[in-house]
Amino acid sequence: MDTNGLFRKFVAFTASVHQVKHEFTKDIRLDEITPLQYSMLEYIAVSQPVTLSDISDCLFMSMPNTSRELKKLSDKRLCEKLAVAGDRRKHAIRLSPQGQAMMDGVFGQMEARFMARTQDATPELLAEIEHALDVLQASVFYTERPKMGKS
Amino acid sequence: MDTNGLFRKFVAFTASVHQVKHEFTKDIRLDEITPLQYSMLEYIAVSQPVTLSDISDCLFMSMPNTSRELKKLSDKRLCEKLAVAGDRRKHAIRLSPQGQAMMDGVFGQMEARFMARTQDATPELLAEIEHALDVLQASVFYTERPKMGKS
DNA sequence: TTATTTTGTTATCAAATGATAAGTAACGAG
DNA sequence: CTCGTTACTTATCATTTGATAACAAAATAA
């Protein structure tokens, strides 16, 4: 079968995803925040609570750099480190109310742009889009299980 | 309808795509090349021939920075600038044979990883994946038409 | 022809990011 | 308790990337 053609579609597709994601977010990044810091906030927003190691693993950043950038976010009052019961080395990282408000605003803008692209879609097409997202995430764009944590 | 749920899937999906793309490419980037330069090479490989402005527009880089980084790629003999008939300001940028060989190797590695994820898929699932890529690219992940060129 | 726009270049500077070494505190095994 | 491991921090340095100003050559318009 034409697996090579499928691979080419995969390449073109990932390029489009990168580009569209960038178009959706490029002009709504507040000052006070670098692109890397934004990606950390987005990750925290979706996966909170997280640990420093989670961020480091998922964003492919070294621990020292993760620590440094997170400190800047904490200094800006955009996220908080809470002690974790049971292991005092770890911190549960969450968005602060300000950080949550900021990310709510960002996601709101993104959602508006997303809906602008889907508003003319029929219910059938919407269902198809949702199904397509599910299929691809399950079969191709799944993320390797990171080495699991403990009990 | 649950457009909000769909948007959340969109957000999770784009995050997965970024991550998987990174996992596919992180350890096959040769020395001699920075991440930004790699993204330029990948874009050139897929869209060649391109102009400097094309790269600048599609990769959201300023012209001066695009020019600088492309010069480094040219110095490394990974791409070539050819004169364009009809407009001597423009250059048709292509991969050099060395650059093409390098990108062939990179895409080969990526394809192996892609196939590792799809080798157990039935022909029906493969068809479904292909259809899903088409649907999403047409309805959500299409890129805005940049201001068109000339005649 | 002259003026304006397009396409690209060069130079310079600041900021963001990556990499490494060294250190600390808490946990867990023996 | 001691030792090794985990989770994280601090400091430092080099590289990469982004931003801006100033320029030049070719095309296009007037």
Automatic annotation (TrEMBL), chains A, B:
The keyword DNA-binding applies. This is Winged helix-turn-helix transcriptional regulator. Gene3D superfamilies: Winged helix-like DNA-binding domain superfamily/Winged helix DNA-binding domain. One of its GO terms (molecular function) is DNA binding. SUPFAM superfamilies: Winged helix' DNA-binding domain. It comes from Cohnella nanjingensis. Keywords: DNA-binding. Residues 3-138 form the HTH marR-type domain. GO terms for biological process: response to stress. It holds the Pfam family MarR_2. InterPro entries: HTH_MarR-typ, MarR/SlyA-like, WH-like_DNA-bd_sf, WH_DNA-bd_sf. PANTHER family: MARR-FAMILY TRANSCRIPTIONAL REGULATOR (PTHR33164:SF57), TRANSCRIPTIONAL REGULATOR, MARR FAMILY (PTHR33164). It comes from the Bacteria.
